[in-house]
Every structure is written in structure tokens, then in C-alpha cells.
Fold this sequence. Notes:
Distance between the termini: 73 Å
Structural class: alpha/beta
Amino acid sequence: MTGARYLNSVYSVSESIRQAFKGAMDLILPYKCAVCDGVSDSEERFGDYNRFYGELYGEDSDLHICGKCLSALNPIEDSRRWFLCLSNPVENDPCPGLPLYMPFPYRGIVEQAVPKIKFGRKNSLARFFGAILGSYAVNEGIKADLIVPVPLSEERLAERGFNQAFEIAYPVSKMAGIPLSDDCLIRTRDTGRQSEIRDIGKREVNVRGAFEVSGAWDVTGLTVIVVDDVATTGATLHEAAKVLYKAGAEKVLCIAFAGNRTVKNAEPF
């Protein structure tokens, strides 16, 4: 047996042993659900997603979610996914009627998952939510010239390791065929966590003046989509839209994966 054939045979045996060992370990130590930490019993459902993930990122997905959590991921009915961005309209609003598309309620699996994304560094969950959001956006026929994620401050980005809004926006961009920029919108200062501020007025003050459009970008005449993970009062998305309009954007649309809002009868969407 030549050296090359010998090495190939050794590799083949070693690979067989590795796969057998991996299979045995999976039985002993099954994958944990990224959301509830229970046993992930739905691996066979992720074949198509894993192929999509490989094409998008050039690597295997490490996402594992149990069937119970998957079945709890229920969207808002399709006729009630459009909102006015601000939950409480303000006087002299520079962009009144700013629309927000938001297909999932912020409860259950989503409410459990978002803190794991933000504070547990589970960007695999953000990417999964992005693929779902992209599918809904395509089915809705949403179109634009540019997608921009809500930016994090340098301090917050260093703390989390990634921008969850970017991780969600990237699959949306690829699925919808809309260019994505992660440097069009700039965070000018670190702000307090919106989730820790209950008062609506204080939320608006907290993000006021927190964004600007990069001088390297000309958004004049463009339709721009601003993407975030969660929308509550809409103050963050609204502030981002304001600076885009000020910079010359013709139309701005806000998209969030989830929120704790319900459509009011007066909203014309």
C-alpha cells in the first residue's frame, strides 16, 4: 500500500470513528434549545434553513431549537402587521404617518429569545429571526433602495460582540434583493437602554439626536428601510427615520421583528 493510499484509508477510518462517536455523544448529550435550554428535538426540520444558512454565511448553522419553542413562534395575523411607528404621535412630527411593519408579538418565545440574543451573544437566533422576517417581507412585497439596521454605539457593540439589528437585517436584504448598509446610519452617542425606560417621553429624549447619516452616503431620493429587533414606543426607529428624511430620503419604512403593540382601528394599514 502506497503512502497516499495508506493515509487515505487511515483518514477514512478516522472519519468513520469520528462520526460514530459524534452520533453516540448526541444521544448522551443532545443539543440544547437556544431559547428554553431544553432538549432540541426538531433537528430534522432545519434542513432547508441549514442549506440557506450555508449559502449565506459559508458555514454551518449552530442553531438548535426545540419543537415546543418552534410551535410557539406564532405571527400576528397578516392584516394586523402594519402600525404607525410612534405609539403616541407627537405635535409637529417631521415624519407623521411613518409606517412600521412588525409581524410578531413580543411575548413567549420571542420575549425569551431577545435577551439571549442581546446579552447571551446568540447571534444564531438573530440570524434565524432575520430569515423569517425576510420571508415575510418578501411575501408582503416590501421594496426599497436601501436597508439600514439601527446602529449600536461603539460601547454597546463591544459589549455584545455584534449588532443584533444588523444580524436580522442581513438575511432580509439578501432575500429581498435590497442593498444593505451598516455604515449609512451612525450612532453619535451611547444612550441608556430603552428597555429600562418605562416613561414614553423619557424614551424619546433618550434617543433624541442619537443618530446621523454618514457623510459618505447620499440618500437623496431613496426609499430606505430601517430595521430593528423590537419596537415598543417606536421612538428609536422614528429618530432614525427623522435623520434619513433630513438627509434627503424620499420615503422611509420601519421594520421590526416583534413588538408589544396592537393595531388600532384608526390605523389605515
